[in-house]
Amino acid sequence: MDIKLKLFCAVAETRSFSQTSRIVHLSQPAVSLQIQALEEFFETKLFDRSGGEITLTPAGELLYHQAKHILDHYNDIEKEMRKISGAIKGGFTLGASTSVGNHVLPKVIIAFKKQHPKVKISMMVGNTKRIEELLKAGFIDFGLVAGECMGGKLKRETIMSDDLTLIVSRDHPWAKKKVVSILDLSKEPFILREEGSGTRQTVEEYFARHGMSIHDMHIALTLGSTASIKEAVDAGVGVSIVSKWAVQRELADGRLKQLAFREGNIQRDLSLILPARRHLSHAMDEFIIFVRKYPYDTFVK
User: Do the beta carbons of residue 292 and residue 209 sit within 8 Å?
Assistant: First the structure.
């Protein structure tokens, strides 16, 4: 019933079966079947599909408000029971934007699990936009994303800062340089992250502050992950801007070279995001405290 209620709330909030299926990575027929099962259970229609749009029926409105209350109340019960037992157990699902999820949180989660081995943690990785969508739909409990939040109705707390760096291949003419101007980028094939990426958002904002846009660039490729960008840069396809966390190994073994910009550093915040009225379980509380205190400066040398 829990997954059915979460799917129902997601459809109610997006007003779209197709968008919900994309957010949760289920087929549209699978989402429809779950909603149909709810309608059969309650013996009433929950959505009005007439008129070319999806709206809640009166019964659907009632179920939506009660379902949100039930899901929040379940977390409250779990939290109080854990406090009584004195043990930190249970589990949660967090979402993380690509750079954070692939290069930072694995170490943080391992360190947390050593202290609290009974806590079960699942992590979903995607760009910032997708993590926000999953959070709003109720399929993750909270998120850790790079860059600014793109949507409303979320609480945001800055956890740490992240530096972005320009990377080139070891055979690139700039490989022996330490500093270049941002204006020099317009002369080079540039590899960009996809729309919805926190890295792309930060890069575009940095360009704008210096009178440039991505339309001034020679975009060689647009790729959906930092890993694929690193491979493309290593192959000499172009240059790019990525998180310093993501390239420590490649910088150490000499595969890639990093350069600074004469115009100044590119920095962004890593933020914890939560639904505005989210009730946290005991395990989630403890993990968030752990995330706040973690020594992130050990990641970048």
Answer: no
Distance CA 290, CA 247 (A): 25
Q: What digits encode the pLDDT tens for the residues 206-227? A: 999 999 998 889 999 999 999 9
Q: What's the CA gap between 73 and 232, in Å, rounded?
A: 48
Query: Which residues, 6+ apart, have CB-to-CB distance to 279 below 8 Å?
Result: 72, 73, 75, 76, 79
**Is CATH 3.40.190.290 what the domain over 88-301 is classified as, yes or no?**
yes
pLDDT at 139: 84
Task: Write the single-letter amino acid at 166.
Answer: L
Q: What is the CA radius of gyration of the chain?
A: 22
Q: Which residues pair with 97 in a beta bridge?
A: 126
Residue of 189, 206, 178, 190 whose CA lies nearest to 267: 206
Candidates 1.25.40.10, 1.10.3720.10, 1.10.10.10, 3.10.450.50; CATH matching 1-86: 1.10.10.10
DSSP classification of residue 281 = P
Torsions phi, psi for 43 (to 5 deg): 55, 45
Q: Is there a contact between 64 and 54 (Cβ–Cβ < 8 Å)? A: no
pLDDT at 113 over 80: yes
Strands (E), the chain: 47-48, 55-56, 91-97, 120-126, 142-146, 154-169, 179-180, 189-193, 218-223, 239-243, 256-261, 266-275
Task: Report which of 118, 98, 122, 151 is spatially closest to residue 270, judged by C-alpha positions.
Answer: 98
Q: Looking at the chain, which residues constitute the CATH 3.40.190.290 domain(s)?
A: 88-301
